Amino acid sequence: MNIDQINAALTEKFQAPCRDGAKRQIIFQEFEHYYEAIAWAIEMVAFKKKFSGGIPERDALTFIQAYTKEYFIMDQAYRKFCVSFDKERQSDVLKPLSAEMENLYTNWYHTELAVKWSATVAGELSTSWPIPGIPQQKGFFQYTIQKSLYDNKKSFVIISDALRFEAAEELMQRLNTEIKGSTELRWMQGCVPSYTRLGMASLLPHKSLSMQGDDILIDSISTKDTNGRRKILKSYVNESDVVLLNDLIPMTRAELRTTFKGKNVVYIYHNVIDSVGDKGDESKTFQAVEQAFEEIQGAIRTINKNLTEANIYITSDHGFIYRRKPLEESDKTTKGDILPLLTNKRFLIFDQEVDLPGAINLRLDYFFGKDCGLTVCVPRGDNRFKTPGGGQTLCMEGLVYKKSSYR
Length: 407
Known about the structure:
Helix content: 40-55%
Strand content: 15-25%
Number of domains: 3
Shape: globular
Oligomer: single chain
CATH class of the largest domain: Alpha Beta
């Protein structure tokens, strides 16, 4: 069933009167999410038509530039389609279209993108992950926050766990319609493997980085929790603080001014999107993105209204991959016989060089320093390692690039 057939089916089912303007408005409101779903489905079909020959193989820099300019639209349209589909009360009418869009996204776009990007990584970045000339997540503090300090500007850094690029692009559009001034979206190359512990550590100032069990240490200090992160930040910027976004929003003006008086750098941690994976409720991933938007916008309103002028940066530790169709057994890669230091569905970290079939193997010297002796193995394409538990539709880690959205 195509879009025209679905539209005809809905018209026949409801026989909605539409000559009167007021009635048309009522009808639109009643079927708003239906029409939004149709619009995003059209966006996805248009993307497929534009790249009917497939996503081309490209060098790493060109690939990332293409994603940030146009490929991301498919991820965004799929997310928005699913959000609208979930809100539509007559979603049974849209089910045939939903199946088509799931097939288009999962079996065509996602496979195309993942396979082509994996080939680029294997051919170009396996011996040295950082792409010359591209801002690195690991250098965020040095090249962004430190620069603001040199310019005598205060900085609030909102780090929203798993806020991926396409979501940041929508957030930018929302902020530009709401706040004074302008918001811009910039991107940087994320760390690999792309997961919370590594991503959070990379955004903090540091002289040395090391791995201890499942913890990442900065200058021998744990980065697991806010206390450790606060200690690290204060060791580089004395007048600084670390807070949770959910603690900031309900603060009164007096509490805000007391808490942040004299602070030049404030890191604000936010965890909504990533937490749905932690709770095992993967079906709510896209709802969590909408909630993240609302909470971040609320935090920015609070800061702008109650505190002195400052730069506000919004960034993330990593993104996420989500599809509603569960993984097939053929989409899973075996882990091999060597025992890893750290096991995840999208990566394995070893304390020796390994060469796993069906995986891309990269040394972690670029992150932990020369001769660290650590190697990460990531399944090619959208595959995941065979491990027990959830993660059949949502995945937070792997080989990704990353964004930084700020004003």
